[in-house]
Design brief:
mainly alpha, Four Helix Bundle (Hemerythrin (Met), subunit A), 75% helix, 0% strand
Length: 91
């Protein structure tokens, strides 16, 4: 999802090396104007928070259903970004 957002930011000549910056720019540039849904923002925020918990908590385990939900949301998220980028290129 992070790299999908970075691809979107290239279309605006924006960039960031930090996940927090990418999330913030995605919300500001693409969700606030209505290009992508608030639901996609929630998915991105949730995935980012889950990543932080798993990466930095001691022996943190993710329930299989939570991992499946996150994977499904990431797939949907990237599919929507791909569609946007394809339409952007066609212009």
């Amino acid at each position: 999802m992070f790299y999908g957002v970075l691809a979107l930011l290239v279309t605006r000549q924006l960039g960031t090396s930090k996940h927090t910056g990418a999330v913030s720019l995605f919300d500001h540039e693409f969700v606030k104007p209505g290009i992508f849904s608030k639901e996609m923002s929630v998915w991105l925020h949730d995935a980012f928070e889950l990543r932080l918990e798993v990466d930095y908590a001691d022996l943190m385990k993710v329930a299989p259903d939570e991992a499946e939900d996150c994977a499904r949301q990431a797939s949907d998220f990237l599919e929507q970004i791909r569609g946007y980028l394809e339409s952007f290129i066609e212009e």
